[in-house]
Design goal:
The protein is an alpha+beta fold and 963 residues long. It has 30 helices and 42 strands. The strands form 14 sheets. Strands 1, 2, 3, 4, 5, 6, 7, 8, 9, 10, 11, 12 and 15 form a 13-stranded mixed β-sheet that branches. A hairpin with a 2-residue loop joins strand 9 and strand 10 (225-233). The longest helix is centred in the N-terminal third of the chain and has 18 residues, at 9-26.
């Protein structure tokens, strides 16, 4: 070499410049990196785990390693620029033989000790040799690594090679070691043949553990703890994904490692250690390098990872950090998009090699299935993502079993473009949707954290509207539908979400499936499935509050039975067996008083098999049946119908047991098919707010009325109707119900003193004594004299066969006169009898009678001619009976003068005031020892009387006191 430099000074300058360039630029900060590469190659050649140690002793840096010792090709490589002694097998790290030049960045005096012999390089000795051989020196320092001298000293014990560097003045040993410590972890990752690096007292070690499916766990232990990566090897690349606390942490920024760090900046989620042609300084890739080929097998790396870690390998959207980064990002995304690796719940893509978990003798498609695998954390994440409740795998799968249901379907993978994701998918919804919209991304990958990655992969994003659409025409058990609604409910957070589910399918109680919650009805506590042809009733086992939020109407059994659509069905086909069955199964779940009367239109078979409206049928053995006339239109419902649906359900729709009712709120007219309803309605002062009336009263046999009234007063439904005398039922009973041909309203209430001897007593023997008072409104009421009762009283008063007491007669006359005087009775509506009842109790020719209007005439005129009532309404009574007043038909004159006095001055007046109610307003008082009155007119004669009145003067027969 000295001769060559001497013969060619230019060669010397070129070698010096080349070495200086490598030291200043290419290897300026790669001392440990380059020596670690050599140590890794030596360990690989020797087939031993590589170890590297760095030690500073004073101003000397010692770097030792294990592995193959220095050999002759190695010596040639060290002393020749760009000439490597390593084979081209592809397993060695160095390729150009210039990496050792990095020692020149810190030292001019270098010694390489090896078990096979050593070399020494020295700037001082090189200059001496140049001087001794008369080689002209260069302007710059001569190349140091071109001339070597033997170094007899052996490496330190336990090491195969040791490099000793006398540090150049100005090099900080502690800073140099700190920089090496910072590189140690990366070197252990980049150089798998190297297993240990010791920097002073700090030890860095690497352990590689296979975990299945080509995945390895790399754990680097440092003085501060340990760090972990998941490693996967492809034909030209090695990928390392950092792991922290058992979970993958994508790399934010890094550089290409070929195999050690270069200056090619990357933004990939995993570290890339690649077999890529590099420039001699290993900082840049050679132009034309096939960068995109490095992405081959990347999808296999993703598939080897646990399911919930796979999306960590998807490059995040952003600008490329270098040209190579841009090429790699596109290549990786193409690899991921065109290979099946994305975990899904649906079936695997055809041609993939996924194997169901638990297959004997087969490698699981999911590495989570392997004991001790890096995916063991999934058990925690799966349980954390689950929510309590039952999810059908079929329906009713408990939370603890849900994970098993999902696990059975998680071995499948799919091309991303053929998969679908429902954002925020829960385990409950996942099991249900998978069979509708598969393949489906599992719940742990469907959250916001993975949305960006799935979008980059072109995974189809599902919305609520698509879910609703997928249920169209679907037939599943009702419990499955309820589970679906329960799983969807958390996603309906606003009106927009509710609108998106507008086409959600809903199962009905009649096994139909319809579209749209707004079109269906939810029962309010029905609890059983009843097929309703007239309403879209949701199956009770599928009912869920979500349907109400989506617009379903909630209805009680009573509201369903009052539906106008049902009425329309009954009008069209009242005997439809489906309608009959639905109504009778629904009726027991509604309050009887809430049911519409028109349910009686429902046709049921009678005892002969003929269909008849329910309100024309009686239950077998109904008490009402014994009360009706022989030709009543009622039949008896078939016993089979009673056995199937029960008597209570049949009674609720109008099948008779006791009397039936007609009811309506705010009625507008007499249109309820009640007997004589028009006349009753015409007598009302105003329309009633509510009509409740007993029907079919006109069908009761007259002889059965005592028992009928007992039935009416003991049935709570009808007993209350007796409290209002203006109601239809009391009115009809008064007018039309008859005992012995006499209307019920013409009978006297038992024990009532009025009308004794005039009206017949009501036979109370058949009525419960506790209920007897209810009948006051249907019997003769002295306080309410209507034309019918007035006719009855007048006829009774004229009947000579009757023997009423005078007081009863006078009382009847008072009631009749008061009714006329108060306008409640119009005399024009009455037909007067030829006889009238006089004060004596006899019925006499009306032409001989007069109405007693002034009571003192009763002292002078025979009771055989006087009709007595009350002086207050005497004129009304006279008008009613078309009789004269006695004071007008008979004139009277008091005979004799008597003794005139005043009420205040006469002692007898005080006594009279206590005995009689006498006028004391300024009238005269005349006392007589013999008081007689002369009568003229209809009655003539003179009669002695105890007292009399003439105008304001009172005449009194004064007794002769004794004592």
């Amino acid at each position: 070499m000295l001769a060559a430099w001497r013969d060619s000074p230019t060669r010397l300058r070129e070698d010096a410049a080349t070495e200086a360039d490598l030291v200043r630029a290419g290897y300026r900060d790669r001392l440990l990196t380059e020596l670690a590469q050599n140590a890794a190659d030596a360990a690989r050649r020797a087939g031993v785990p590589g170890r590297l140690a760095v030690l500073v002793v004073g101003d000397t840096l010692h770097i030792a390693n294990t592995g193959a010792p220095l050999d002759l090709p190695g010596v040639h490589a060290l002393t020749a620029l760009r000439a490597s002694g390593k084979s081209e097998s592809g397993q060695s790290v160095g390729r150009f033989g210039v990496g050792f030049t990095a020692v020149r960045s810190v030292s001019d005096e270098i010694e390489l000790r090896s078990r096979a012999g050593g070399l020494r390089f020295s700037l001082t000795d090189t200059r001496t040799a140049l001087t001794e051989t008369a080689v002209p020196e260069t302007v710059t320092a001569p190349p140091v690594l071109r001339l070597a001298w033997p170094a007899p000293q052996a490496p330190a014990d336990g090491w195969d090679t040791e490099i000793v560097l006398l540090l150049r003045p100005g090099v900080d040993p502690s800073g140099l070691c700190a920089a090496m410590r910072a590189e140690a972890v990366d070197l252990l990752l980049e150089l798998p043949a190297l297993r240990e690096i010791r920097i002073g007292e700090d030890v860095f070690t690497a352990e590689v553990t296979p975990v299945g499916s080509g995945l390895e766990e790399v754990r680097v232990r440092t003085p501060d703890g340990s760090r972990t990566w998941w490693q996967y090897r492809t034909r030209r690349s090695r990928w390392l994904l950092p792991v922290r606390d058992g979970r993958p942490v994508p790399v934010a920024e890094d550089v290409l490692r070929a195999p050690t760090r270069s200056d090619e900046e990357l933004s990939l989620p995993a570290l890339l250690v690649a077999d890529l042609p590099m420039q001699p300084d290993r900082r840049r890739a050679l132009p034309g390098a096939r960068v995109s080929a490095l992405a081959e097998g990347y999808a296999d790396f993703a598939r080897a990872l646990p399911e919930s870690a796979r999306l960590a390998l998807v490059p995040a959207p952003g600008f490329a950090r270098s040209e190579i980064d841009g090429v790699l990002r596109e290549a990786l995304l193409h690899e991921l998009r065109t290979h099946p690796w994305l975990p899904v719940l649906g079936p695997e893509e055809p041609g993939t090699t996924g194997i169901a978990l638990g297959t004997p003798g087969a490698e699981p498609a999911d590495p989570d299935a392997l004991p001790g695998s890096p995916g063991a954390f999934l058990a925690d994440s799966a349980s954390a993502s689950g929510r309590p409740g039952a999810v059908p795998g079929g329906p009713g799968v408990a939370t603890g079993d849900r994970s098993a249901v999902l696990a059975d379907r998680r071995a499948a993978v799919a091309l991303p473009a053929r998969a679908s994701v429902f954002p925020g998918l829960t385990p409950e919804l996942a099991v249900l949707l998978d069979e509708l919209i598969g393949p489906l991304v599992p719940p742990e990958l469907s959250g916001p954290a993975h949305a960006e990655a799935l979008a980059v992969l072109d995974v189809h994003r599902l919305g609520l509207a698509r879910v609703a659409e997928s249920t169209s025409g679907l037939h599943r058990p009702p419990a499955w539908w309820r589970a679906l609604y329960a799983a969807l409910e958390p996603f309906v957070v606003d009106p927009v979400a509710a609108e998106a589910l507008g086409a959600l399918a809903v199962p009905l109680s009649d096994d139909r499936v319809v579209t749209g919650p707004r079109t269906v009805v939810l029962d309010d506590g029905l609890g059983v499935a009843v097929a309703l042809p007239w309403a879209r009733l949701v199956h009770p086992q599928a009912a869920h509050p979500l349907l109400a939020r989506l617009g379903a109407r909630t209805a009680t059994a009573a509201e369903l039975l009052a539906d106008p659509a049902l009425r329309a069905h009954l009008d069209d086909d009242p005997g439809d067996p489906d309608i009959v069955d639905a109504v009778l199964r629904l009726v027991p779940r509604a309050a009887p008083q809430s049911l519409p009367a028109w349910l009686g239109l429902l046709e049921l078979p009678d005892s002969t098999g003929e269909p008849r409206p329910a309100d024309e049928l009686l239950l077998p053995g109904a008490p009402l049946g014994d009360l009706l006339v022989a030709d009543s239109p009622f039949g008896v419902v078939a016993a089979e119908t009673v056995d199937e649906y029960g008597a209570e359900a049949l009674r609720a729709i109008g099948v008779g047991w006791n009397f039936g009712l007609v009811s309506e709120t705010d009625p507008t007219g007499p249109d309820h098919h009640l007997d004589d309803e028009d006349r009753w309605w015409a007598g009302l002062e105003s329309d009633p707010e509510q009509l409740v009336a007993v029907r079919d009263l006109d069908l009761v046999d007259d002889a059965a009325w005592p028992r009928a009234l007992r039935l009416l007063t003991t049935d709570p439904r009808t007993a209350d109707l007796f409290t209002d005398p203006r109601g239809y039922t009391p009115w009809w009973l008064r007018e039309h119900a008859r005992f012995d041909g006499i209307p019920l309203g013409h009978h006297r209430f038992p024990g009532d003193p009025e009308f004794v001897g005039l009206l017949p007593d009501f036979p109370a023997a058949d009525v419960d004594p506790a209920r007897l008072s209810l009948l006051r409104t249907v019997l003769a009421d002295p306080a309410v004299i209507d034309p019918d009762l007035a006719h009855a009283l007048l006829d009774a008063l004229a009947d000579p066969q009757r023997r009423p007491d005078p007081a009863v007669v006078a009382g009847a006359h008072r009631r009749l006169a008061a009714a006329v005087a108060e306008g409640r009775l119009d005399v024009a509506d009455l037909d007067l009898p030829e006889r009238v009842r006089v004060l004596s109790g006899a019925a006499v020719d009306a032409r001989e009678a007069m109405v007693l209007d002034l009571p003192w005439f009763g002292l002078a005129v025979s009771p055989q001619r006087l009709v007595a009532g009350s002086a207050e309404h005497a004129e009304a009574l006279a008008s009613l009976l078309d009789l004269p007043l006695v004071s007008e038909a008979v004139s009277a004159e008091v005979l004799g003068d008597g003794r005139h006095t005043t009420w205040s001055a006469e002692p007898l007046a005080v006594v009279l005031a206590d005995l009689f109610v006498t006028p004391q307003a300024g009238g005269d008082l005349v006392l007589h020892t013999d008081l007689r009155v002369r009568l003229d007119g209809a009655v003539r004669g003179t009669v002695a009387v105890p007292w009399w009145r003439e105008g304001a003067t009172t005449h009194v027969l004064a007794p002769e006191p004794i004592g």
